[in-house]
Write a structure and sequence with these properties.
This protein is mostly helical. 74% of the residues lie in helices and 0% in strands. The protein has 2 domains: 3-67, Homeodomain-like (Arc Repressor Mutant, subunit A, Orthogonal Bundle); 71-199, Tetracycline Repressor, domain 2 (Orthogonal Bundle).
Length: 203
């Protein structure tokens, strides 16, 4: 296919290929789609795809990187600290889950491929680290306000993220009878309730 069918700047072509890749990867998996099919969907030839991304793996990394860049890590921790421990944590987790659910398909694929491709893992680690840091600062802030008992805040933040992402993975791979008990809202509510009972200083 000639690139003349879809003229545009280099950045526009780059984005068009990434968007076509996101659709292909989430529908067919990494191994289930070809660079030729992605190039056709993007309206470019395969040579152009390789010129932009180098390889199919390079394209997957770019797609995961793009998806992560679209997610906004909650940074205004003071907004959550102005609430009670339970309410603030609930709002913080809900804001994160909204971002996570919007990009869940490609992120799950990224996590699956990260075991064999360290470059994918590096992209995801950077994002997870930002979320972990936000949670850690929330816990530290609530402790300073005497709204929370002392704890190992970095480990606690990591445990919350492991719970959320593990539930997401199990949900996708389980029969409907099990999956219905592992929706985001239910898992989040249980995490918030457990932490509030164990560490909160609320009356």
């Amino acid at each position: 296919m000639s690139d003349q069918a879809h003229p545009g700047t280099e950045s526009e072509t780059n984005l068009r290929i990434i968007q076509a890749a996101l659709l292909a990867f989430t529908q067919n998996g990494y191994k289930g789609c070809s660079t030729r099919a992605i190039a056709e969907q993007a309206g470019v030839n395969e040579v152009t795809l390789f010129r932009h991304f180098g390889s199919k793996l390079g394209l997957l990394k770019a797609a995961v990187d793009y998806s992560v860049s679209q997610m906004r890590v909650p940074t205004d921790i003071d907004r959550y600290l102005a609430q009670s421990f339970r309410e603030g944590l609930s709002c913080l987790m809900r804001d994160y889950l909204v971002q996570l659910s919007n990009q869940s398909d490609i992120l799950m694929l990224g996590f699956a491929e990260s075991f064999s491709h360290p470059e994918i893992a590096d992209v995801l680690k950077q994002f997870i680290w930002k979320i972990r840091t936000a949670l850690m600062h929330y816990f530290e802030g609530q402790f300073e306000r005497n709204q929370m008992k002392e704890a190992d805040f970095p480990v606690l933040a990591h445990m919350v993220l492991i719970t959320i992402h593990s539930a997401q993975s199990v949900h996708r791979r389980s029969p409907d009878e099990i999956a219905k008990h592992l929706n985001y809202e239910r898992v989040m509510a249980t995490v918030v309730d457990t932490l509030s009972r164990a560490y909160g200083n609320e009356e």
